[in-house]
């Protein structure tokens, strides 16, 4: 009798342990990002940049440590959109993306524009509206495949977009004349110019597209209470900082 009771008790303990383990695995979070310096990038095997810095501060505030997985942007976007308990950063919140995710942010703000090689800068010497009209007539504008810039420019009627996978090589190709304009941020352009050892005049902003907030975006399959917990943590962080911008 005692043996049977002990066996039943052991079974219950093992079964409860399995339930707890299953529940934990089901609720574990995964974050996805891309290798796109200086926002998020891998250096010496470590993930660095503006985005990871803020997200790690947020993790500490929440008291959780989700795995951060670096993938090409299109795949990271797909996984974060489709998988439960998953999120992607750093991502621009656009009208077309609004219903595809649950949003936590903003984390920081970026200035996005169209950049021209130095020798072509004189083509864009008017006000921004005129420069925008000129850009619509140019031959070829490089944009990140699946990125916010592609969506934003398409919504403004641009038909001359050339989606590219490897954004880091885009400055080199702009200066070689492969592209007439390059859509990117001022921070990335400054980083790329410095990395290549070029003069600051090598490329400059020809058209301002706008300033956009970057977010941590959770899949719609993630419980709303989880998303709210991360937003509340971000709000607390912001209240404790002297500046409204964590970057």
Q: What do these coordinates show?
A:
This protein is an alpha/beta fold and 247 residues long. 40% of the residues lie in helices and 28% in strands. The chain is built from eight helices and ten strands. Helix 2 (50-62) crosses helix 8 (224-240). The protein is elongated, with a radius of gyration of 23 Å. The termini are far apart. Mean pLDDT is 89; it is low at 9-26.
Helix content: 40-55%
Q: Tally of extended strands?
A: 10
- Largest sheet, if any? 8 strands, mixed
Helix segment tally: 8
Secondary-structure-derived class: alpha/beta
The CA-CA distance between the termini, in Å, is 66 Å
| Shape estimate | elongated
Low-confidence stretches: 9-26
The sequence of SSEs as H and E is: HEEEHEHEEHEHEHEHEH
How would you write the strand order of the largest sheet? 4-1-5-10-6-9-7-8
Rg, nearest Å: 23 Å
Mean pLDDT: 89
Strand content: 25-35%
What structural keywords apply?
single chain; about 250 residues; alpha/beta; eight-stranded mixed beta sheet; two-stranded antiparallel sheet; 8 helices; 10 strands
